[in-house]
Write a structure and sequence with these properties.
The complex is a heterodimer of chains A (291) and B (337). Helix content of chain A is 72%, strand content 3%. Chain A is mainly alpha-helical and 291 residues long. In chain A, the strands form two sheets. Chain A has a two-stranded antiparallel ribbon. With 337 residues, chain B is an alpha+beta fold. Chain B has eight helices and 18 strands. Chain B has a six-stranded mixed sheet with strand order 6-7-8-3-9-10, sandwiched between helices. Chain B has a five-stranded antiparallel sheet with strand order 13-17-14-15-16, with no helix packed on it. In chain B, a hairpin with a 2-residue loop joins β1 and β2. The two termini of chain B are 13 Å apart. Classes of the chains: A mainly alpha (291), B alpha+beta (337). Chains A and B meet through α8 and α9 of A and β6 and α2 of B.
Amino acid sequence: MTQRARPLLLTSPALAVIGVFMLVPLGYGLAYSFLTASPYGGAELPLSAEGYVQILFQRDFDDSLYFSPTYLLILLRSIVLAGLTSVISAALGLPVAWFIASRPARWQGTLLFVVTLPFWVNSLVRTYCWVLLLRDQGLVNMALQGAGLTQEPLPLMYNDGATLVGLVYNFLPFMVLPIYAALERLDPRLIEAAHDLYATRRRAFLRIVLPLAVPGMRAGALMVFAPALGYFLVPDLLGGGRSLMIGNLIQSAFTSGRNWPFGAALSTLVTAGVLVFLVIAARRGRVEATP
Amino acid sequence: MTEPAPRDPIIDLEGVSLAFGPVRAVSDVSLTIGSGEFFTLLGPSGCGKTSLLRILAGFETPTSGRVRLEGTDVTTTPPHLRPVNTVFQSYALFPHMTVAENAGFGLEMLGWPKPAIRERVAEVLALVGLAALGDRRPDALSGGQQQRVALGRALAPKPRVLLLDEPMSALDLKLRKEMQNELRRMHREAGITFVLVTHDQEEALALSDRVGVMKDGKIQQIATPRDIYRQPVDSYVADFIGEANLIPAGELGHAGRFVMVRPEDVVLAAKGLPVRIEGRLLELRFLGSIVEATVATPGGSMIRARFASAAMADVALPPGETVGLAWSDAAERHLER
């Protein structure tokens, strides 16, 4: 066996898994998105672009198309919520990552473990706990009323805010870890050098720590934005009917909606959108890395 | 040994100590450095010289004692408020900034206007010989070039004192010699006080106006390189600086602990000098321009003598021969420790 072929052979099992379990379903999705919905679920010939048309237009009784922004708004809400999730996670994750990176080495492993602790609990259970916290008879409202701060329960559930809280909670560790990886490499002498050159603590942070954390934040944004965009569990439980995201739309298209081509078209759109986002981010990263 | 205090002091340490828990890194150091002086703290690793430098920079606050800078008490003043800049051992260049941005960072923090920063950065990069490399990133530079950036960056804000923490330790020998000359030149041209920390005694002797030799957090001796070499206060300093024969005083019939004499001051046999001690010649090593003789005394000391090989041309001494050793009165020094 040649030296060149060996790495390829070693990676082939992983490549096969990715090929079979990722590319094939994606191909199926792409194919289904160009079929016609069968009345009882599934899809059938003839080929049609109806799935894509339905994203922007609805059919009137006389079969004429008219523009309907409903789905576009949901798509937009998903992008905004996923974007906000990235930004808020970055803002919350940076101090946490900095705190961990500046602890003595023997503590860092334990603290990182604590950050990943939520992964050990099923995400459905964790998200449902937020329901118990936020609902009208939930812990937060009971506490506020008990303390006499509010007379009636605050509407904490079933809105975009609740969805955002749930998303940030779910994806924060994905932001903390890459920022930590970036800051852990930061030589503490750089901060001393900045102080030595007349920088206050604030300016040393803004000019030295923050710029060196940016690559980590960018990696974190990729790992948060992409999955948050298509997440359906959190908007389903916390957002309710008023804060639908694209994930909920896809889910209902395949289940109660019995419109597989429509669901497949939405999925394809999200995948393509995320791919474009990834390519742009990778390009920017490469441009900034070259001196 | 106490030197007279410099006439125009810029740094004044008074009983400065620094303890990390039970460890005393710096122990009751009092020291005055004159304005424009090139002062070196010399000692082996762990002697507290870097801790003392960090106290001067403001990175550490002394556990006790006082630090004055130009007469002002700066004992608890943070680094960004001291007119002092540091060249770090690892250079600590900002990796996300260009050479010019690194060099201008201090000026920017001081609030200089942009055109003035550009002008001063160009001046400083020319001084350190990097005028053409302002747009590069530090990781695209060689070790020697990075060192120059670190120097330029620290000199740009025209500090009153420049602190240098083992700046040459990462450079190879040839580059180190070159940088030593550069440092002397910059010290002359910039006209500011340099405080250098090093474990390299040759570097200390070659560069400094005065040297402070440190051991276990204390300063053993402060003197000019010449006096440190010729008149060490104790066996530690004598042994650390250059080579020294430390002969127990009893063997020579003296009071005290040791008699110190440098190998180059010892001559074999007598040339009009009275023989101080006799011994058995163990070995005669030819080292090119010089010859080194090792002599074992009856008292068990090893004495080394070094002389020009030209002077030995017609002397052929076989090892094992008993030889007399001599030196002048001025060459010997009596040490109590």
